[in-house]
Design goal:
- The strands form 4 sheets. Strands 3, 4, 5, 8, 9, 16 and 17 form a 7-stranded mixed beta sheet that branches. A 6-stranded parallel beta sheet has the order 12-11-10-13-14-15. Strands 1-2 form a two-stranded antiparallel sheet.
- The chain has 2 domains: about 190 residues, Medium-chain alcohol dehydrogenases, catalytic domain (Quinone Oxidoreductase, Chain A, domain 1), CATH 3.90.180.10; about 130 residues, NAD(P)-binding Rossmann-like Domain (Rossmann fold).
- About 25% of the residues lie in helices and about 30% in strands.
- It is an alpha/beta fold and about 350 residues long.
- The mean pLDDT is about 95.
- The radius of gyration is 20 Å and the shape is globular.
Length: about 350
């Protein structure tokens, strides 16, 4: 076994404490990654709150990180020590189901192995996430980090970035498209950057009028205040695609009403139950879709596109020792737009 240091959940306090972690021995197709930067996701917060006691197994969050290859297994051919690397929220899949064969490992029929809180497919041990100084991952689920991408600001691309990239690609967003992004947080700000870079006329829909200047600085061409009935009526049946990144439960009706005929609302932010009036879909032949994470080909393509277009997340970088502060502030929505942890203080 290998040992490293990381931030592990204390189920009695729902906070994280520094701990020594055990990793598996390096397998032939493994890449050992020195984790340099790890993004902080709402999923980490939810996992921490849900972690009840040690019978749940150790919880080490973190599923969007960048780092440097420190060692490779004997069968690894695409990476070498010193390579800059990125890892997202999926670290394995069955590899044989129709979804995996189509390059959509995120929809694996057996469910993909997640970066933390899952069971390793070979030995059944629990996966421990990227809030640590070292991570071992199968070569095929690691990605070369393109030169020119700041490794700290690129870390959230491996979760928030790919989550909005896949529906933008699946829905054919490009020149001639009109896109609205509902919500301007960790997901939403990257959706704006990516949609605009793809050539779409891009709007932001937000309940906060003060975010208009920020939206335009991210590349938005227009801004709509969701609580202003007149502004919402002015964009009725307007958008080919609405990317809904709002994380709290909300009524979809006002947003569906902004979708153009044969357009689509992609519901990404809130993953709980929703209620939809089918009349809101019927009038205009509108469609409701969703997406989550991304497959290996799509993730690699997203990283290349971001490098070519100089797209990274807007982040606040903190030493990993402030992880509990980051999580507390995230719960309050006090971040523009993504926290990233500098893991070097774990040395």
């Amino acid at each position: 076994m290998r040992t490293t240091t990381g931030w592990q959940a204390d189920p009695t306090t729902h906070t994280l404490r520094r701990a020594t972690l055990q990793r598996r021995d390096l397998r032939p197709d493994d890449v050992a990654v020195r984790v340099d930067y790890c993004g902080v996701c709402h999923t980490d917060l939810h996992a921490l709150h849900a972690h009840k006691d040690d019978t749940d197994g150790a919880l080490v969050p973190g599923h969007e990180f960048t780092g440097t290859v420190s060692e490779v297994g004997s069968a690894v051919t695409d990476f070498a020590p010193g390579d800059a690397v990125a890892v997202g929220n999926i670290v394995d899949s069955c590899g044989t189901c129709p979804m995996c064969r189509a390059g959509q490992e995120n929809f694996c029929r057996e469910f993909p192995t997640l970066t933390y809180g899952a069971s390793d497919r070979q030995d059944g041990t629990g996966t421990l996430g990227g809030y640590s100084r070292e991570y071992l991952v199968r070569e095929k689920f690691a990605y070369h980090l393109p030169a020119g991408l700041d490794p700290a600001a690129a870390a959230p691309l491996l979760c928030a970035g790919i989550t909005v990239w896949e529906p933008l690609q699946a829905l054919g967003v490009g020149p001639g498209s009109t896109v609205a992004v509902a919500g301007l947080g960790g997901l939403g700000h990257l959706a704006v950057k990516l949609a605009a870079a793809l050539g779409a006329t891009t709007f932001v829909i937000s309940r906060t009028p003060d975010k208009a200047e920020e939206a335009h600085s991210l590349g938005a061409h227009g801004f709509v205040v969701s609580t202003d009935a007149g502004q919402m009526e002015a964009v009725r049946d307007r958008f080919d695609v609405v990317i809904d990144t709002i994380s709290s439960p909300h009524d979809l009706t006002p947003y569906l009403q902004t979708v153009a005929m044969d357009g689509t609302l992609s519901h990404l932010g809130h993953l709980g139950p929703i209620t939809v009036n089918t009349t809101d879909l019927l009038i205009g032949r509108k469609k409701l879709s969703s997406a989550g994470s991304g497959g290996r080909p799509s993730t690699a393509a997203m990283l290349r596109f971001c490098a070519e277009n100089h797209i990274t997340a807007d982040i606040e970088l903190l030493p990993s020792s402030q992880v509990n502060t980051a999580l507390a502030r995230l719960e309050l929505g006090d971040v523009r737009y993504r926290f990233v942890l500098d893991m070097s203080d774990l040395d």
